[in-house]
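In this supplementary section we document a worked example of the pipeline. Step one takes a protein sequence of length 781 as its only input; no multiple sequence alignment statistics are reported here. Step two produces a three-dimensional model, which step three serialises into structure tokens for compact storage. The input and output of this example are shown verbatim.
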Amino acid sequence: IMQDTKKFFENLSGAGKSIGVLTSGGDAQGMNAAVRAVVRMGIYVGAKVYFIHEGYQGMVDGGDNIKEASWESVSSMLQVGGTVIGSARCKDFRTHEGRLRAALNLVQRGITNLCVIGGDGSLTGANLFREEWSGLLDELVQSGQISEEAAQTHSALHIVGMVGSIDNDFCGTDMTIGTDSALHRIIEVVDAIMTTAQSHQRTFVLEVMGRHCGYLALVSALACGADWVLIPEMPPKDGWEEQMCHKLSENRADKKRLNIIIVAEGAIDQNNKPITTELIKDLVVRCLGFDTRVTILGHVQRGGTPSAFDRILASRMGVEAVLALLEASPGTPACVVSLCGNQAVRLPLMECVQMTQEVQKAMDEKRFEEAVKLRGRSFENNLNTYKLLSHRKIDAELPRSSFNVAVLNVGAPAAGMNAAVRSAVRVGITEGHTLFAVNDGFEGFSKGQIKEIKWGDVGGWTGQGGSLLGTKRTLPAKHIDKIAEQMRIHNINALLVIGGFEAFESLLQLVDARSRYEEFCVPMCMLPATISNNVSGTDLSIGADTSLNAIVEVRLNFGPCFMLTCDRIKQSASGTKRRVFIIETMGGYCGYLATVGGLAAGADAAYIYEEPFDIRDLQSNVEHLTEKMKTSIQRGLVLRNENCSENYTTDFIYQLYSEEGKGVFDCRKNVLGHMQQGGAPSPFDRNFGTKIAAKAMQWISKKLKEFYRTGKEKLDVVWDCVKSELIFVRQKIHRIPKEQWWLRLRPLMKILAKYKTSYDVSDSGQLEHIVRLRAKDISAI
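The serialised model returned by step three reads:
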């Protein structure tokens, strides 16, 4: 029955349709991935796809600026920053005459479907073009430039937008294409600056982009633990200069050797006057006498290779954009493809544009709290988390709860664990609790490796990889008596466990032991932190994003003479011609890294445990690559999850490909290994770990206060994620959740690699409406 209700995209045909794709406005990393997805999905469904070079200017000028794209023309585009088809700010398109010329150029090529990748200005222009389309065709008919028949054939223009903007300033989507990559550039610079700042005890004032939106400044401040941040949506209160200097001075007195202040380029005060980096530098030098330097990052934030997140986001949006164009009818309004959680959704373009404009209007009218809420829940959560962590209260101001909370890491290390510990410790202290750090997981717990951890002890932890507390895979059942004794000795009233499946199973064991040990009848909360992303009850785990970036970007050893990445492996292959690389990823039995990494790296195949395969599938993949090598691409990439098959090992697949491809292509193999667990955490993992740890500690505080008010002797509660109803035999053996959202991305990877496959689009096709926050709604929040 479920099968009958599903809708598959095979029923959608692009035959006879032509799609134009353009990038407009400021460039953003990931635009090329979006262009690639539009071209390949369009060709896959039988449509013609045209590059429109140089944005709207190319549409107005026509000629060679509008060229038909081929499958091979977007090869090796995925990992390139900027936009290879060019972008330009076009004055001509703002005129009626310019739009008339653009309409003629499109009709001459049969293009009635436009995919526009740009900011709100570019998308607004596209919508105006659509609204004028009928009138423009009438003018062209009257002037004799097109026939009546051509006007009827091309009577409707369909527009689908994708937001490409590093500022993340567009309402209706959680993230815009390019934002995550820009954060990578900022954090790379901040991490580098921190070393020199510590050496000389300097204060650095960094200006990041964001003329009208403070997202980059806010999230980078969270990700690096900045001392102060200034954004346009929330100007500092009067007297902020004294407060900032007091905080900088306080941090130096705490033996912190550096200060970081991050300023959005559009930062303003309560009177809408600009706050510049030079103003802040002069203030710090004058009031504190600190050696202060200014760094303006500028366009470096737009450059470089797109992050794994942006490649995946852009690829998903590009495919969804083509589906939206195939399903559009003459009355379908222009829509924008947005990201809501893990779902690609379609929203009315002008609703999003109007709400984006309302944010600026609210700021102009000094309604700053409303502006923050209009930015969306994600922005507001980031701001609230920063406020929670940034303002250290003196002991006299702290509430005293008399509760002791223990924090520990369990299982394999994952980048972002330290950011989570830092956040939990500081929020817990702000809530009035005494925090205890447990070294080496439950094994250390049983040995009494427990000590109080204070605010200053976790300074600088956000950007550190691995686990500074130490972590082991030991489960508590083995030492349950000693752990209960240590809980009693240190009077531990709550547990925060950060880790992967071992942490998940550890809390289940502690819950099972409650009937025998009343010490475990306390609030317990688990934060998922594992590169495998295989914990039930959560879509994402701390560390998974860093590992994905390691797969597609971070350098790895490949033999004694090479330092390569998946990107560089592909470049190496294209340089030597006809070469296929077989890459083994980690993940246990969970194929998340292989699948999502394959989508991000443009892999030809990804072998995982969840999707069984046999020798016939392997042979089919070899034949597919053999055909591919006859084109101008002549290189291939295959990913294999480490436990995808007991018999089809990496060596077996390498030898099979080498033998079957003999005379056509040669092969190389690489096992990425533990480098996927190492390195500094990505901005996403720093921010994710920081936010969910803060939420977890607030949850623990709430439960402890409930316990205190009711006067119960013990509290029997555990975070929902650990309820046994989510556990079943397959997960106990192979550590795989019942439902894995990312499996829906596998058909996309296959489609973009030119495999015939089935793709369920049941969730697509619905045009949703953006949630507006009216004044009365805001006052109720």
